[in-house]
């Protein structure tokens, strides 16, 4: 097959590589000429994605994968077009379709008969049918269901382990017609491999959910569940701390029963998915009080954690405080919706001198994010763990000279590792 992948970001590029590795001719489209240039040189444009560089080094020289900024070069005659263009959402749960609209209109201009179009970007329910179908039909002059087929098939992977996740989880599809769904099944079965999953009654593979709307909701549901679950864990943790209870023992005990799956509390919920997709769900269902309350609870955790520091340390005005971790989660060089921003602001609001450390970022990169860099070994009065980088589990008082208070926002350490230092962790008095 000839396949076009639109948007070569941290999901789109690994998808393009996966498709090419199955023997198909793949052209990636991106508006960023620097990304296109790097891909065509066989160089990964972003670090940290397992297997990506090795696969690029093999596929690009072999001519199986190339990149372009020109839709006219990639889309005409394609058997399938997969879009993974970002969708942005503001704090009021309003989606900004700007980039996706522009990409869809450009795709429509060059769409030819017989193409399967699959959107993988997470969307509010109804978007595929009510927004993309008329936009593609108007711009192309073609008719969906007759001249081309449109489906929604959400990405279900995490950056850093995309190829493993593609094999591990069922590929969900939802079409606007039976014929489109059949083409989507045929396509994804030809470009993906699936691990054996005896735990799944339906088995691993391509799962037809019956409609684009059901497929859209499935993605929103699985991520919103996690946000609500974490919000509940954070509520439990805040209460446990006031009652002298170790919430981690409670969670372990509760989860020993197979119907309990309580997640872990923490300083923040970050990334492109968990803090974002509940807002998309709220766009469809603004009366979802449980979802809204969980989102508010999780958004309040950086401020709550800084409050823990203030309660343990005392007045923060004039104190040097290191925030450990700019990334939204350990081992991933990404700051999308990271708790670092709210944590730093809450500390500044209390008059602290705030410094940020992250082993994955240079001083210059931290400066571009608006932070002053902290280096281990420099004097500091207190520290807050914001990201669970593996390196932070090894820290000891000597690494932060002068420290008197250590607030472990991710429970990467323990009180025993901090003799002579006031140690606090969320959910434990």
Automatic annotation (TrEMBL):
Keyword Calcium applies: no
SMART domains the UniProt entry points to: UDPG_MGDP_dh_C
SUPFAM superfamilies xrefs: 6-phosphogluconate dehydrogenase C-terminal domain-like (SSF48179), NAD(P)-binding Rossmann-fold domains (SSF51735), UDP-glucose/GDP-mannose dehydrogenase C-terminal domain (SSF52413)
Keywords, in A-Z order: NAD, Oxidoreductase
Matching Pfam families: UDPG_MGDP_dh, UDPG_MGDP_dh_C, UDPG_MGDP_dh_N
UDP-glucose/GDP-mannose dehydrogenase C-terminal domain mapped to chain residues: 322-415
Classification via Gene3D superfamilies: NAD(P)-binding Rossmann-like Domain
Coiled coil spans: none
InterPro entries noted in UniProt: 6-PGluconate_DH-like_C_sf, NAD(P)-bd_dom_sf, UDP-Glc/GDP-Man, UDP-Glc/GDP-Man_DH_C, UDP-Glc/GDP-Man_DH_C_sf, UDP-Glc/GDP-Man_DH_dimer, UDP-Glc/GDP-Man_DH_N, UDP_ManNAc/GlcNAc_DH
Superkingdom field: Bacteria
Transmembrane regions listed in the UniProt entry: none
Similarity section: Belongs to the UDP-glucose/GDP-mannose dehydrogenase family.
Protein name: Nucleotide sugar dehydrogenase
Species of provenance: Actinophytocola glycyrrhizae
Lineage: Bacteria, Bacillati, Actinomycetota, Actinomycetes, Pseudonocardiales
